Structure formats: C-alpha cells, structure tokens
Amino acid sequence: MFPLVAYGTPLVPVEPSSAFAARQQSDIALLQGNTLDEHAEFTVAAFPEPITADRYSAILRTAFGDAADLVEQRYPVNAFTSPTAAASRVFSDRDWICGSWRSGRDHAERAPTYAYTFTDPTAPTPGGNPVPALLQPATVHGSETYFLFDFPDGPALTTAQGSLAEQLVGYWTRFIRTGNPNGDSAPTWPRLDASDLALSLEPDAIEPFNMRTTHHCDLWDR
C-alpha cells in the first residue's frame, strides 16, 4: 500500500497504487510486507481510553456506513482480546495489509512478487515501550526492524528470535542479489500470484498462508 505519498514529481509522477493498477510500474522483482498489527499503536493514539463493545460498533458505523454490519460480522468483537484489539485488526487489514496484497497482486502481473506478514507478538517495539495490555498479543508497526538490522543499543533477541533474524537476513540478501529470496534450505517462499500465498514470519513458524482469506481482502477489495 502507498499511504500519503507525494506524487506529480519527476521521481514519482503518478500516484503509486494507480500506477500499479494500470501496470505502469517498472517490471522488477518486488518483496514487500507488513506486521500483523500495523495499526495497533495508531489505534491507541486515536482512542486512548479502552474502547467498549458499543463504541466499537459506533466506530465501524462512522468508518464504513452501511457496510459496518458486514465488517463486524467478519471481525466480531468476541474474537479478540478486547474491542480495542478488534478495531486495531480492522484497520491493520484494511489500511495496511490488504493494500499491500492488492499492489502485490497487481505487480505480480509484471514481475516476480513476494509478500510477507511478520507475526511475532513478542518482538521488541521500535519505541521500546511494551504493547498495551488491552492490545496483547500484537505485532506492531516496525517490529521486524530489529530482526533485519544490527543496532548497537538495540534490545536483545531470544534464541528463537535470533534464528528467525538469520532467516530474514538470508531471505532479504538473496532477494537483493538475485530477485528471489529462496535458497540455503530455508522454508520456501512462494511467489504472490493468483494463489494469494504469502509467507508468515514468526520464530519456529515460517510458513505460507493465504493472504486474501486470512486478512479478509475480498471484503476490503470492494
């Protein structure tokens, strides 16, 4: 997805998602993805007091109008640890993950495309603050950063997280060298195509999953 991108310049002449939909982007291999709960901290910033079940329904009505009931059927509040967590997942899927899915599917018609969702709920947060209790478990925006880069003052990873970090660095560097993240006996990363397969990245659980159905992208694609 491409939120709030400045365009109409020599560097970015066309709004990116429109360019992807029109197949006007460069035909180069693409690797892209998100954390599972991209919108978690933004949800807490917008609603610092715990959201009630009634307030959750009202938020959906404000955001989605006549489609609110359908959204609530797909994201029932009792399927989450709290109404705040439910709202977080709604907007993580709608505003982040399914935007990535759509742009990835569009790009897959031009060049090899690989998508991921980083799903480790124990990953360090970029700000160093714990995930608020009413949102746990959650994998927040930017939490894969410490798995891809070495920070001298960064938090220590567990043994399992360190192993995942090695896998991620391997995927990323192979992709940079060859345009394909696969190799070195790592779990196979499928290309995103009509099968809608992406890779879920979590310690001891690297596996393909259906991005469209898992994140209700058929709903959001409407």
Automatic annotation (TrEMBL):
InterPro entries: AB_hydrolase_fold, CarbesteraseB. Pfam families: COesterase. Residues 80-206 form the Carboxylesterase type B domain. Signal peptide: none annotated. PANTHER family: CARBOXYLIC ESTER HYDROLASE. This is Carboxylesterase family protein.
